[in-house]
TrEMBL record, chains A, B, C, D:
The keyword Transferase applies. Residues 98-331 form the DAHP synthetase I/KDSA domain. This is Phospho-2-dehydro-3-deoxyheptonate aldolase. InterPro entries: Aldolase_TIM, Class-I_DAHP_synthase, DAHP1/KDSA, DAHP_snth_FXD, DAHP_syn_2. It comes from Kiritimatiella glycovorans. It comes from the Bacteria.
Length: 349, 349, 349, 349
């Protein structure tokens, strides 16, 4: 931690800061320049991060030197984490997220009914998807919009999972539901709006399911990694980071998908990184280009909304691909994956 | 709702949309221009908002005409809402938020211990504050930071409330805690990071306590009002909207306090509007100017962090005023309130 | 400057950086921690700012300690700059921007014709404005919008200036026009879109007129001060910083007026600070609240769009006040100015 | 154009708006709903865009139906524009930007001296680049940074262009220099900070050189297309749109590269689209992933900063690739181009 003093800081003020730092068991290193005095503090930066150093008289600002994340950090664990999703049926092979294969997850925004879910499941599986998505609990901006089927939606997911053999990912929105959703889902999803719902993160940290943690709409990558840290610190090391677009000044897309987050996360962390271009852009016609871009940039998994009849979808129809469009997309995705020396075969042995 | 077709939309596509709209029981009004065909739909716009119109073939985009909020809207209830906070002790007068008096709320970011809380309570009361703030449950970016005292913090708040006669406002972060916090708090606070934690909003809608709803860091005013709508729709009409800064490209302040939100909310809604400049800017030295600005712009209440020893604060020290600074601020705030024909006397009879 | 090395930086890499720093004539100060080695560099930080330190192998990141602005900095010149605008007619008193009086500038967005300009000039003068605004060169998003009257507009401004005795502020958009506009304007305005048009800044730095430098729509306060630095470094120390709103995620206002910029600029710089709420919010009904807020927060001047017939304005009608609305606003502004111990009397002797 | 009235608009106010619209020669189409009256206006929307409709009493807001761009619009010209860059030497083949081949442009941020420029030119040509970049006029945030060699830089570019046979792209910052730069450059570049320098756009519209128009740091795609419209409307139809990152809340990257802009521009416009990931992210280690992503998403050209000795670069060293890194990148780029059915062979016959 570097403490920079105001130009007019008095010797007494500087002395006082040094004393406080020593009280906390740390060793300050003072440099007096012509323009500013600065104090570097060697030792456990976590101690200092929790201290209001900028409130000390004479201090102008404080600059952390180390990254605030530990368990999520690539420095702490240089080998990349590979998350194992067991096969649905005994004879199947597990999936690995974070290996050489790129995982494709597809399905409707919301679970609407059994027939539709089964139809989508069969179509996306035939096209090459590895997992099925669908929300039973839906975060909606308006209280007057469809809020999801809840437990009934989970039951439908379980049935379609069994029929198709596709593992499922579904969102959990409330601490009270983490245990319930964990019984049904292969991957628990925490949505963008809950990325800093810290009680939910802690509860998900007590689940035995891997967690897909979506990036918040206005959160930095550092904050996103800190939210992963919450889950990991509570005991669950299996976190997948999912980029889904951030809010910017652009209006022709729903959000701005930040594909540079893919290489940044791969540099900063050992955790796998997923991309959701459907929410990222909000328009089905843009999704294929962004899936190709995401895989080319290094994504370990891609999640795409697919609906057999988008104009009747109860949620997010305009960004949903039709099954035939998804089929074409899988072909393109496969070519791009091979161009970057990966494949669409994430099944292990 | 206005449906704009693509230039190359076929007659069949347009016909299909018209049929769907009629199926929903609404009356479409078609205008064929040289450049575009547009369809205006008269009737209950809420029906259309839940339909994926942009997924219909040939549709370019869709423009809502009406505001999505109802209960929170100034159109539905032209007279401004005045929220009554009963006096702590029998002999006292209730406070009103949203009347001619401007309400001052002050206190530390987090409840740290009884002595400190009592000291702050006494000092801010003497200076002129009407209510006391302090967090028992603290949302912190890092799992390694102080997370609040929880129930013990609520007990401290209750004791200091009784000692000082100041009603208290404190945050609730989890659906499981809404009932508990409602037993201790005069106002329930929902923090910026939970503004779209919809299950929490619904639960707060079942509480009997007025709710201070902070604006999310990347949320529009429309979304903020929709979150108020969630609380109101669940049965609790007593919502106070609190502006606390949004994320922008500026880095010298922690957030950018959006004071234009004050007149916008007053135009769009009947609900009272509060401003929290401490979180809004993150630096104690900027707080007095922003409190003056907030009151001049029309805020009904202002919430300020005050700590007797900011350099030892367990949370947000750099943005906390010392009690003596708060005293000066109250004087300035009073002069500005009178300049805009208000006062610092929100107590009713 | 603090140079932070990667955890895995080799001794050779660190040595190499130290050699480079010494080559530049500076003294590096090395601290080896358990987690990171850092090197603090004492001396002229401007030298280091121009070096690509982050391109040196082993370097993780670099943190400047000093502010990049010098001439604009409050550290270099603690007393606040007061800019003198000479009286139009011999008998008049000069205006001072940056003194105890708050300067009110009013007028239409664009100069449209002589009669209208004269009418506005007389009305705003009668209401209490101290200066007149109006654009002869107009930056418009569309090439098909009214682009301003150019030189003819300047002639109209000169005539109305003479008639009313109000000094004028008008925009210059091109290096080729700086001399021309300087002949007509009392204050040269550089618009938000040109805040980083560095050749224009340099040219304005050679003018003898004070410059109103608007903040760019996505520029930080630090960049804004650096643009002032360009003007000052080219020889013109008379710069007024004008906050006019930044782009954010909010959509109900045209921009988000950043009133916290007012106290930040007053802390960081000795230059006067102006606020333009008309462009800042884009809606006439919000302007009065924001003018009050700006003055309460410490603005030295306020610029407001006024048009006698907004619905016929050639530019920015929706954000223009009618003269009668401006009159009421001046009254309110006066009360707020006095509440913060200022006045609307910026004329000196 | 759709005009939405306030709920409380009077019949007189509505009548007045209708009269104004008819005065402008347009035909209003009135729909009276229970909640709102709306007026649709058929005919030339450009007329209405220039009218301050929101300033008319009773009007709540106004929604344009048509896109504001014409010449840049894919609707006006469905076939994609292919820009021809003639060969430097007689025997060479011209390049085409916007055809099936993806164009690679490489070079240092700034022209520093002849030897370095020649070295880079030879290295990037050998690696497979099709054009050379290098700035002679440099927009720098600080007046104390290297500002470019100006005309001397242009002379160096000309010499290296002749030696290597690579056409060059270089920036023009000032209307006064457009003619000069046009004599030296094969493509004129307008930088992000000048995207709305409208006098410069008009002047570039009078040049015979194709123009690379970089997207502004806080500009929407619609505004970017409107700036292209300025150039095209002034007579120069040869515009290449270059995405280079927008400002967002993210801090680990210099900007957020908006790769969704690639498919959006391809849908909205016939103009070719280029991507500059070097400025887009600011860190050399992220560039290769983003070049791959850009090509996979459909970019027609990619511009990359390459410097033989980044740690001695006078500008943007940290984001510059070394020549050997660029070689590897070209290989990867070629594989991805082929995966999306393109190539790195943009030379025509």
């Amino acid at each position: 931690m570097i403490i920079v003093f105001r130009k007019d800081a008095s010797d007494q003020q500087i002395e006082h800061v040094i004393e406080r730092v020593e009280e906390w068991g740390l060793s300050p290193n003072v440099s007096r320049g012509t323009e500013r005095t600065i104090v570097g503090v060697i030792g456990d930066e976590a101690i200092l991060r929790s201290k209001p150093l900028e409130a000390l008289p004479g201090v102008e600002h404080v600059m952390p030197v180390l990254k605030p994340y530990k368990r999520a950090s690539a420095e702490m664990r240089p080998e990349r984490t590979r998350i194992r999703v067991p096969a649905v049926h005994d004879e199947g092979a597990p999936l690995f997220i974070g290996g050489t294969g790129v995982v494709l997850i597809a399905g409707p925004c919301a679970v609407e009914n059994y027939d539709l879910m089964l139809e989508v499941g069969r179509r996306v599986k035939a096209a090459g998807a590895h997992m099925l998505r669908g929300g039973a609990f839906k975060p909606r901006t308006s209280p007057y919009s469809f809020q999801g089927l809840g437990r009934e939606g989970l039951e439908i997911l379980r049935a379609v999972r069994g029929e198709t053999g596709l593992p499922v990912v579904t969102e959990v929105m409330d601490t009270k539901d983490v245990e319930l959703v964990s019984e049904y889902a292969d991957l628990l999803q925490i949505g963008a709006r809950n990325m800093q719902n810290f009680t939910l993160l802690k509860e998900a940290g007590r689940s035995r399911r891997p967690v897909v943690l979506k990036r918040g709409m206005a959160n930095t990558i550092e904050e996103w990694l800190m939210s992963a840290e919450y889950i990991m610190n509570a005991g669950n090391e299996q976190v997948i980071l999912c980029e889904r677009g951030i809010r910017t000044i652009e209006t022709l897309t729903r959000n701005t998908l930040d594909l540079s987050a893919v290489p940044v996360v791969r540099r900063e962390s050992h955790l796998p990184v997923m991309v959701d271009p459907s929410h990222g852009c909000g328009h089905a016609d843009l999704v294929p280009a962004l899936v190709r871009g995401a895989i080319a940039a290094g994504a370990d998994a891609v999640m795409v909304e697919v609906h057999p009849d988008p104009e009747r979808a109860l949620s997010d129809g305009p960004q949903s691909l039709r099954p035939a469009e998804f089929e074409r997309l899988v072909e393109e995705a496969g070519r791009v994956a091979r161009a970057v020396e990966r494949s669409l075969e994430p099944e292990g042995k």
